[in-house]
Design a protein that fits this description.
This protein is α+β, with helices and mostly antiparallel strands. The chain is built from nine helices and 22 strands. It has a six-stranded antiparallel sheet, with helices on one face. A four-stranded antiparallel sheet has the order 10-11-9-14. The radius of gyration is 26 Å and the shape is elongated. It starts with 21 loop residues before the first helix and ends in a 5-residue tail after the last helix.
Amino acid sequence: EKARPRSFKLSYYNEYKSYLSPPLWTLISMASSPGKGTPQVNPPPDTNPHKTEYKLEKTRACRQYGCPPPDFCGDEPSEDSQVFINKIPDDIKEDELIPLFEKYGTIYGLKLMMNRETDRCRGFAFLWYIKPEDAVAAVAGLNNYEVRPGRNLLVKMSEVNKKLYFGNIHRDRDKGEIEEKIKELFENVTEVYIQQNIKEHALNKGFAFVEFKDNRSACEAKRQCLGDRKFLFGRPIKNVDWAIVKEEYNEEDLSKVRALHVTPLDETVTEESLKEVFGKFGEVEKVKRVREFAFIHFVKREDALATMKEQDKISINGVPVTIVMANPRGGVKKSRKKRHYPGGFKGAPSAISRPHTKAAGTHSQVLHA
């Protein structure tokens, strides 16, 4: 006699679902219904007891609430009004989140990210207030809020990225040509960063960092580049992704910085030669050479600031250099930028996406004096 397949209740495992991988959850779902080839997952009922005039749009990927709210006539909320909500239990929907967050101000909209297969929450959402101060109050009041026994929400201000990494750039084109062409292809470009090749000064490194006016413009540019649809001098722009966002420091620590970060430098450049070049702009305390860049420490901060303004006139061995203020060493960081999941919604500012992890670090590396 054949052994009967073992069966069990899927509900027993529901509370552990967030700790299981998707393939394992699929196997458990299939095992709970012997003889059937598809997982038996029962999504929570699609009820919305929080009745308001806000519209609710549902797709397989998300549930969008508001955006904009009814009878809204003002400007769209700024990027400072966006809140990131993480560690949401998978059975929660907007009818539980909205009453919590509307206590702190008028909500512009909510985007709750959903699992396409199970129709349950993926554990995070983005929420916009009309006023930035309401977003700050919500973070202070709801971060670490226990929404279920033993389940606390992580609520923080969303970190917005405006810079993209562009790969497959012509190496024999100079910054002026590349910047002019990129500004023709995309709207609201504010700055284009190109790094020169150390060994061959006439060439660049084959990639660029493009900074936009706002996150929405960057999102639109990234969307336009999907499928290699944008060309730069006959060559498709490839590997378009978010640049790593720099760390931020408080204003008090930044005001004490007296060092400059100078790049690129070839192997023939010495600390003595750098001290001679920058000594023309003020008294240099010391020079520290590190690989392809160096830190120039001035005695007075005013001399460092004045040198930055003259960087167009400075070249090392005939190669133009990029000069920026170094970050404070050992200072108290205002915040450390971490990666977020894709977000945003149609007609309102988009949430930050996953940052680039390849060559992006070359430009966005942390600069410590």
